[in-house]
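Q: Fold this one first, please.
A: Sequence and structure below.
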Amino acid sequence: MKNHILIVEDDEAIREGVRILLEGEGYTVQEAEDGFQCLKKLSAETDLIILDIMMPGISGIKTCEEIRKTSHVPVLFLTAKGQESDKLIGLMAGGDDYLVKPFSYAELLARVKALLRRYCVYSQPLKTEKKTKQWLEYGKLKVNTQYNEVYREGEEIHFREMEYRLLLLMMENPQKIFSVKNLYESLWEEPFLYSSGNTVMVHIRRLRTKIEEDPQKPEMIQTVWGKGYRFG
């Protein structure tokens, strides 16, 4: 079954080039020239959104925030800004990854395939003959590893794919100290760069806001100064 990708970019030349590239790889592609068209074309069939940050009318950041009100579809930001603060704003708005212009088509394809692969795995219940522990519990937090569901005090919490994978990895290894480098390379499956630490920090922050009583004084995901993070 073909994956459906929505490209949101006000530059027609870039939009057309990306569309031709993705269709050549067998993807079904839709185009939108701004955030308003994106929100109209977003559907249950959309598997990935490639979203430009700097657009007239409604920015990519605001568009992503609107998308997150109804959908957990992965969002890959395209940005002409290379500053770390801009990347962090994109991630905090709900983005899953970002690519700085100008980019190579090879790098774009690699990121698209990685996001789709992780999203497909996250969206499906685990199918394995190996007997694994279905429930992980810590205090008021419970995780159903078979259906990728997280509950706090009996109420389901909705997680995006990388947030869930981060939580699962740490809960399966309580008290183990994970370095930032270890977390990034284990979950993103890419070599660790200097800027990668900010990506991990943003996801830790988002995770804490969802599971901790007081995210400013976390009890579950603890910072081990100079070493990294541990659960429990």
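Q: Good. Now the second chain.
A: Here it is, same layout.
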Amino acid sequence: MGTELSKIRMEPREPLASEVSRRLIDYLMSGEVQPGERIPSERQLTELLGVNRPTVREAIKSLGFLGLVEIRQSSGTYFRGPDSDVLYRLFELGLVLGERGAEDLLRARAELEVVVAGLAATERDEAGVELLRERLAAMRDAPDAEFAEADTAFHAAIADVCGNVVLRDMLRGIRAMIQRGWIHRTVPTRSRRVAYDDHVPIFEAIERGDGAAARQAMADHMTGATERLRAALAGGDV
């Protein structure tokens, strides 16, 4: 077959269906299978990968949900080909991240937030400062059920003010992955007041145009935020 599908070695910290999904994604993206072609059957994949049939079936269903394959009853499973945002959706659903990739995602988010805060401080104008002031006030006044959304909106506004659409969109995508994948697994460990107070020095540094202070304030905030998300990833309390 060119790109070989070989037996999977068991990795205790990663669900087997995720490893099967990852292996199939690599195989489909290698160019060995053309859009519209049928992929090996469940029975063949079971033999090639050395895993049980329910695991293969679960992995194929995941790829079908992503839109990578089409499952036709009594006919087989066919590669649909990647569309323009398939890789985003792969990461979003955590199928190609794994433990190390998820950790790297959290670190990338933290580093980007710091960079964007520094840029926002140097690029802000009166309208940008006013937008951040409004978003900070919205955090302060938000009902408990809406506080997390107000928090996210404040960070999104910083990215808007920074003036770099590439960094803005990168952060937007990373936040979407984190929110859909992990936020629902977190529980609050700080009072709203403490959470709000974390953001005040970020705003003040951006308002006065101090890039170094904005980066430091954001770095201080992201240290705690990343630890809580890391705990959520591990399945613990945060």
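Q: Anything worth noting on the second one?
A: The first helix runs from residue 16 to 29.
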